[in-house]
Give the backbone structure.
Amino acid sequence: MARLADYFLVVGYDLDKRVEGEGQGRILQRFPEKDWEDSPFPQGIELFCQPSGWQLVPEPQPASFFVAVLTDINSERHYCACFTFWEGLDKLQLQKAEASEADEVDEEPAVVQSAQVFAPKSLVLVSRLDYTEVFRNCLGLIYTVHVDGLSVPLETVIGNLLTCVIPIAGGSQPGQEEREESLRTITLGAGDRQVIQTPIDDSLPVSGSSVAQLFRQLGIVNVLYLFCAALTEHKILFLSSSYQRLTDACRGLLAIMFPLKYSFTYVPILPGKLLEVLSTPTPFIIGVNSFFRSETQELLDVIIADLDGGTVTTPECVHISLLPEPLLQQTQTVLSMVLDPELEVADHAFPPVSTQPSALKIQDKEIRGVFLWLFAQLFQGYRWCLHIIRIHPEPVIRFHKAAFLGQRSLTEDDFLMKVLDGMAFAGFVSERGPPYRATDLFDDLVANQVERIRQEEACPHKVLNHVKELAEKLFKNENPYPSVAMHKVQRPSENSQNTAQNQKPFPGLDDVAVELFIDHAAARFKTAPPVVKAELKGMVPSGPPLGDIVDRNGNVMANSARRLEVVRNCITYIFENKMLEAKKLMPAVLRALKGRAARVCLTQELNQHVLQNRAVLDDQQFDYIVRMMNCTLQDCSHIDEHGIAAALLPLVTAFCRKLGAGITQFAYSCVQEHMVWTTMQFWESMFYSDVQNHIRALYLETEDGEQQNNSEQQDGSGSGREISALELASEQNRLWPTLSKEMQAERVQKEESTVFSQAIHYANRMSYLLLPLDTSKNRLLRSSGLGDVESVSNSYVTNSIAGSMAESYDTESGFEDAESSDVANSVVRFINRFVDKVCNESGVTNEHLKALHTMIPDIVQMHIETLDAVHRESKRLPPIQKPKLLRPMLLPGEELVMDAMRVHLIPDGREEATGLMGGPPLLPAEGAIFLTTYRLIFKGTPTDPLVGEQVVTRSFPIASLTKEKRISVTLPMDQFVQEGLQLRSCTFQLMKIAFDEEVASDLAEVFRKHMHKLRYPQHVQGTFAFTVGQCGKMVVEHKTKDKNQSLKTLSKNLVKTAKRTIGRQYVTRKKYSPPTWENRSSFQSELDEDEISVSEEVDQSSLTLSSTIRSSDRQTMSNVVERACCRDYQRLGLGTLSNSLTRSKNEPFRISTVNRMYTVCRSYPGLLIVPQSIPDTTIQRICRCYRQNRFPVVCWRNSRTKAVLLRSAGLHAKGVVGFFKSPNAPAAVPSQADSTSLEQEKYLQAIISSMPSYSESSGRNTLSGFTSTHMSTSDSSDKLRQPKIGALMKQVMGTKEDLPGTFSRGGKWGSIRGSGRLSAYNPDVGTRLAGKESPQPNGGPSEALFLRQQKAYLYIIGDKAQLKGGKQDSFQQWEVVPIEVCDVRQVKNSFKKLMKACVPSSSTSDPNMSFLRCLEESEWMALLHRVLQVSVLVVELLDTGSSVMVSLEDGWDVTTQVVSLVQLLSDPYYRTFDGFRLLVEKEWLSFGHRFSHRGAQTLGSQSSGFTPVFLQFLDCVHQIHLQFPMEFEFSQYYLKFLAYHYVSNRFRTFLLDSDYERIELGVLYEEKGERKSPQVCKSVWDYIDRLNKKTPIFYNYMFSPEDEEVLRPYTFISNLKVWDFYTEETLSEGPSYDWELRGRQERVPEEPPEKPDTSGPKSQRHIVWPCYDSLSKAVPDAITKLLQDLQSLEAELGQTSEKWKDTWDKIKNTQRTEAKLESKPSFSSSLLMSSNLSHQRRSQGVYLQESGVGSSINLALDCEASATSTPVAGRPSTSTLYSQFQSTESENRSFEGILFKKGALLKPWKPRWFVLDKTKHQLRYYESRRDKECKGVIELADVESVTPATPTMGAPKNIEDKAFFDLKTTKRVYNFCAQDSLNAQMWMDSVQNCLSDA
């Protein structure tokens, strides 16, 4: 029972305390005077009576009524009902008051001067009950009694009011007396009667119609907004001009929050004087009169709801989390159906008659029903996440938030997170958590209606019906007896209201009378028997558990069953020690563990393998288990919402491995890197759930059988299900009052010690997971919030010990020094905080807590000590899961600089190896990187276990490294980011490596340094070609003196001084000191110690070669003569070198020795071809006009037209003008230059004179030549001219409009080759002029062209940029062809882009980065086109009898390319092995192409970068080879070989920049006999020769040359193909260009045998994968294969095998003779051999090769990496690819066993393993059971019979006769012998069956 009213007050205007019009109220009277014990009198009521301030008014206002709410210190709410009326004051009173104030206030306040003013007076009722209407009636009645002067004394009415007692809540089943209870009729003794209906269940709030009112005022969205804001603890302010509406709105908002209770500041009406409360930092719900609106404007973080205007404004800085999505939508829908039922049918054509919303009262309950339904959905299953940690003396309950969110999969949801963290929810848990209490509507809803809610949530109408049912219950609760008539209360009569002016003031009441009433009542109350209303407590039902809910929502992973199967299988394999199987499944398992189900499954599976809390594993098992645990934890969030970390916690302390004597490493030391372990909430919830389990166990034990039976009966179903901890607790709570004191104490003590022991256990566990294995590392402090006390929320360190300890630690250790103690301290602090928090919450006694605090540092210290031992041992452990490192093969003389460093090879942009294009994922691979003196090698195995048996090799010469950059890599298997390197090589290889964690970072740095040192040695002598085979390793850098430098070459000092002799005559003697070079150890210096002095006489022209050189150097000079170029000059008839140098005057050219000392031109060879008529002195002068002194010299002569090809550098700028000046123009330059240019002209004229065509037509006179040239058009060579040359020139030079980079012209040219020989053109057309079609290069007028009707005798191909400004002279016989020349920088940049296109560093899906797009942007093809185009033009000119001088740039890059290509195209000799070698030696090496400089081979040239001019030339040759495959003796492989080795520095051939430098280093003429180690080749040519003798790899079988064939290839970009050298790769063995490695690898057992086994058919088909296998090996072309077979057959027969070349030549000859005999040669043979094919078909051989038409054998040796010729048809399915790598024999064996087989004649019997194969229908035999190689096969098709036999000679002893049987085939009889007769019979039957089956 409760008092209806606690206090009654009369509050009036305080005249004494008025300050400047601001009045105050004061309490005039209050009853009772004494405070009640149970509810003290609230202070400050007078403020609330007039919230806007006490004012005097001139007009009386109507009486008003509202209820304010005050909250006391115990957060009890007091409802103050204020009834205010206005009383007149006469002037007298006012003046009195003013007089008393006058002495204080200076001037009199302006008081209203009317006859009367009115002051407010309030009657106030203070109650703890909220009955607004009853209070309104009671106060109204008192006022009426006073105003109308009724006969009842006021004291009686007030006395009755204060003594009225009503029940708090009605019973739930209203019987008769119950009805009395819940219906209390009261009367105040003034003829009134009121019925008070108390609610049935007081836990449900009473709302009247306030909720409906609130929705009407603000609308659905706004109220939902406020609702979410209130739940997520925002500040809410209501504004209205009506006080009662403010109170109602606040009441409504609280009502819809049920079952959560609002626990922050709640002031529905806030007086104006207290407005500063609004700036409080805590959340609140406050109402303020709109009068103060302006003062609320500057509040920044308050949501303001204006009830009168219906708006809600949210400041910008406030973000409100709304309900999670489907719920928000559903709630809004149902609300609109309740509030606006017409909305649904608004569009109907025939709307139903009445769809009015329900009455306000009912609507109010319906809205509340919607919110109840909403909360039931939000909180469903919450009871399953409660942990009960104490039952006695009071239940202590904690909510496991993470689990709740995880099971609802709402961890991301902002709203729910905030609600669960909020105070309201904490109150909800403490109020509704206890398992034994009275239940209400919400409990019922959550427990029993969840299923219904879930089924109906999609259908709003069903939801609405449910809501209406709930509304009914709510209404019934508030109005149990709606039919009972309500009030009979008098209201004041009309006139009394109107005549308020002449009313008498409210009288003072008689205190004594009222007090008497109160005392009487109190006495009566004491004597009456206490009314005990039995509280119906019961066990709170829990409702369905959450787990099922989510799965049905469909948040489970798709096909999780299969994934779980994978996880289970993998774990089974691990524990059965089937490691290979486990390894194969591992990637799939790690992928599956992303899903929750799989993680749960993992923990369950692992649990089954733990016996007695231990599971000892071996290293590999341990490693796999730890890896799975890490993967699982890595995908868990830090709050562990699915309880995975919780489930793993016991496991990480169970799984372990033995490290050594008595040292065990547990899994926890390997799974510490996860955030979850540093989260305080995780540990708390873990602790609480464990405590709950233990307490449950405690009571399950203590219960005797009777209780079990009890529970069984309650269950109904017997003990089919376990009793949950909450159920147990509820049972215990029920029994508690019945227990004796001792029993109670005992139970409390047991529980307390359970909690205590768990706390100790957890202190241990936490130290396990928080202390890192290597405690010297300060990991935890940095990565997580362990170090700082504040970081852990909601942990209140209440215990003084903890506080003081934490402080002391902080002061001691700071965070500067990362001592191990530092880690220990922070862990101790963390555990202390944890222990304080949980022990305080779970009521552990203080003594126990102190004990814990002293224990924790010891626990941590002990653990650190054990960890140290474990750490030491674990460091010694060999790392296990890593594959063993494979050693690479090294070349003879190649040495390791840095041995194996374990790395991972990461896939780059090439997708073939990653398995993306189908095929096995060979990358990423793990293995090791080796740095040798020659190469950088990676060798390892793929990480994908399905191809784990394969070996992956990637290597490139260290000298070809072009770019190295650091990268950081995340490996797929590990979670750690590794540092790595990306190394790019100009052999088109890219290595992306990530160093394994076992490689120290400083070691990686050392590796980089060594790599740099090897890549850029100080001097050329540091390259591998020089250091090869020397004993001193590079790593050891000790310097020794050079000794025994033997005499080999022209003396070094000769050359050295020659550097200075260009202007001096005498060479001084000078001691030579060899260059110091840091890395040189005992170095056989090939230099000379002798001093040779050479004196040069003045007349150089008269010198003979032999007279200049001492006899000791004659041999050297003869070497010069032997030099390739001289042989070539003699072949071309360009001059002989006889000892006396007698010049035969009829020869136009001579070999000049002017440059023998390299004084004229450093970069030219010693012997040069110059015109006979030019003396050496002239040459010395001419050379100065040319860059680098490279004057024009002859390098080739056309044997038919006798036209010559010259090469030189471009002219110096000063010479240009003079060169083109007309000879008779006045000299504008000094005479020296003049004479030079004349001499130059003489030189050119001499060259022209040497041409037979010139001398025939014109004699030797320059001037007379003019007219005759004009006339003679019938010159013999002219017949060959065609108008095409002009077109060609046009293309090459580019006309005016033509942009320099475009090559659009020249479509006509492509057609020349259509009709075979060029001479087929109509010779008449030949009279058209080249000149006509070639515009003036300098854009000058072309009138002079009529003079130039004849072609020029000499064309000078010059650089457009250089030839500006010179005027062409019409009298001269030469013509300049200006062309655009590609700059070296262009080549360099183009090559970089080409590399990036062919070997991209990362795969990209960007269409702008596709291979073809990048290739186009690189412009590499355009550059090739340009070079080829110029070359073809020159070939045409030479072929028509004009000489050509190529005079571009410095004469050593483009010039060399063009000159070499011209010779290659014009002269078939250069298309043979010898010729090509000679061409390269002559044009590239002798004429000084700067190989070292362009290849950036030394430290000095590092900055210039890599410029592959020679590679560009080789690519051009490759393009020509593709178009004319029958013209070249060498294969494409030969070109690739050169392309690889010209940058590899394995041979000395391509080192240094000129012959001069080679002589200086003594490399040029090495005596043949002096090789130190025969296996080390110094010249690439020797190596190729040697190799060519052994194998036909360099030979082109289609070679079938035609005499004197001039090639004219197409040069358009569309005709050029990307060279496969750029794109191919062989991962199985690395690049194939180091042949020793390739040969040896075949014998290494781990490689599959490469050579086809001829003894029997292979059983397994081998899939050839382009980026892995070497195609030329796996799929050799037919001829190579036949030659190989021939060789192996000869070897078997024991014959000495013939050289392949001899065999080939023999076959060729026999075929030739056959072809002559046959009238029609067969197609294939003619293709191979005949040389009478027309040119047209010859050029198409290449297409034949690609399409394979008509040819049964694949003739291209080099189908190597062209994907078109891969034998894999289409894209094979992945399964077939994998089957290739299975280690087991996949054959079908129907019967197998050991049989003795008799050998051939006189051979013994041998036991063999026989396999009978039904499917292949054969009987195979092997050496032994394990042997994979089949030794022989008996085809069952050939078998005639199987018969029993008798033993023959030499048969095995002790075997019964019946064990012998014979197998007769068409060819021979096999004798067999089985182990016994039974066995023999089985064999015979089996074979017989096979035969009969067939």
User: Anything to note?
Assistant: The mean pLDDT is 74. The two ends are 105 Å apart (CA to CA). The first helix runs from residue 45 to 49.
